[in-house]
Each structure stands twice: as C-alpha cells, then as structure tokens.
Sequence to fold (344 residues):
Amino acid sequence: MNSPEQTVVDGWQAGTRRFTSRLLVGTGKYRDFEETGKAIAASGAEIVTVAIRRTNIGQDKNAPNLLDVVSPLHYTILPNTAGCYTAEDAVRTLRLARELLDGHTLVKLEVLGEDATLYPNMPETLKAAEILVHEGFEVMVYCSDDPLQAKRLEDIGCVAIMPLASLIGSGMGILNPWNLELILDQIKVPVIVDAGVGTASDAAIAMEMGCAAVLTNTAIAKARDPVLMASAMRHAVVAGRAAFRAGRMEKRAYKASASSPTGGLVPSVATRKSA
Amino acid sequence: MEPLISIELNGQKVELAAHTVADVVLANGWLGKRIAIERNGTIVPKSSYAHTEIRSGDTLEVVVAVGGG
Fold:
C-alpha cells in the first residue's frame, strides 16, 4: 500500500522537463567515483550537477569518466559554471557543456564574485542569464537571496531561481528565512535552495517553507557516511514536502492546548485526601 | 606521415602530426569519449572534427565533465 504522500504524483517542472524527486545533488568532493555513484543512487536524485573542466592531456586513456558513473541515460545532467567569475566565462562554459552533452539545454548558471565567500556576482549573473536565455538555454540560476534580483532573473526567463541558504560549502543552513519567504511569495517558477544545506533538517525546513526542491553537494559528500546522509536527505526532502502540502498547525505562542481530554480524570491522591 | 605542427592544447605547447581536429582526437585517445572542443575560441561540433583543419599556432581547449556542485 502506498503511503499518503505517494498517492498523488507530486511532480515539479524545470523548463520543459518534469521530475518527481525534489532533491538535486552535486558530484564534487567525494572520495572516489564509487562513493559518488553509491551516494547519488541512495539520494534518489534525478538531477545531478557536474562541472566542466579541461581534460588532462596524456592521462590514462582507460581512466573512468564521471559520466560513466553518473550516466546521462539514468540522470538528467546539470552542467554548472562553478569557477566562473564573469558572464563571458559562464556563457562559454555552458556552450561547451551543451556540445559535450549532445545539445542538452538545461543548465545551472552561477557566476561567483570572489574567492573567499563564493558569493554570487549578481550583475554578471543577470548579464549571463540574458545571453543564455536568448540562446535557448533553460537556465536554473544560483543567486543571492535578494527578492529583487530573484524577480529580475525570473523576468529574464530563467526556469528556476536558486537562492543560497548560506555560503557554498558552509553547511550553515537557512540563515535568512525571511528573505527566502519573500522570494517564495513572488516567484512563480520553482524556487530551489542551493548552497548552505548542512544536514537533513535544513533540507526539510526549506521544503516546509514551500521550496520546489533542494540542491546539495557538500552536506552529503563530506558527511562521515555519505551514502547514509544521501538517504537522510532523500527522506528529509520527502518529509518536508509532505509537511508543506499537509499544512502545518497554527503556532500558539505562550498558550498550551492539551492533546488529551481535559474531563474524566481519575482524581489525584492529594485531592482524595483533602476531600 | 603528416608534418609536425605546434599547437597550444589546454594551455600546453605540444607538437603533433595532425591535419584536422579528428587527428588530435585520435592521437589522444579521445575517440568515443565525452569531450567538447573549442578551436581558437569557437566550438567544433563532433560532426565537424574530420573536416576542421588545424594549423600551427592554433589553440585547442578540450573539456570533460568532472565532479561539481
């Protein structure tokens, strides 16, 4: 028998593609490809991010390739522009990615501002988004948690808005839930928390707030047991989404409300003695 | 045997016997691998490897997918 959260197909859409899993995972920082493959399988993710880099000249011709482990036949590969600091470099990288992945157009745009924080460079991000959308890319965009920038990116035609929860790789969780709520309130395309998720509860909170999905890499790859953490993230995202759909109870500050009946109590010993 | 030409391949000066991008792909064992190639800043589609000539002084960038978030 299906559990209640499975009885309706609760999918979501990124551009022209539909997905069921609301967990997107990265492939960086793993010990080896074997661990990468196992963790990603355990995460249940359908969308998997990769970076684009120069190949090593003269390396072993039989050395395994990431895409042998994370096959485009089984996953939607989402190439990113990590390491790009200008719109020009980001656009160039994604054109190469499109060629590498046989015309694939769904991409993750991220233009970084500086080394120390990897904070998004929004002017360059906006510039790159304009060009990429014009060239027919379906752009999922990493951005600051600024509601105005998020709206501009949606107006340009990005298919998903992906604000940071906190700095990339910091594991600090959602540091500004109010900004995230402002973004969720006004953005119509999927909003995906990207960067800063540290553990399963962070992912669940993002989903409870109404995010369409969560993207995480370091929280899984740098857990003591990445495969187990991948499974934890999978469940957290499912639980958070179900809680969002179920609609949480109203918060009642400073006022308790008993869960059990207040009448029909067996009189306490103290009461009987005094009677 | 093709004459040797000198090109810049992923930032390294290399000498190799090649007329076309396809020759470079074969020489490096990249046939059938998931790569993308840029010649002098312009992407060379896979379907054009065989008829895209390379000359001494050309710059080739060859990229692959690697782990990343």
Summary: Chain A touches chain B at residues 26-30, 36, 49-55, 57-58, 61, 65-67, 77, 79-80, 82, 92, 95-97, 99-101, 168-169, 195, 215-218 (CB under 8 Å). The radius of gyration of chain A is 22 Å. Chain A has a mean pLDDT of 93. The first helix of chain A runs from residue 33 to 43.
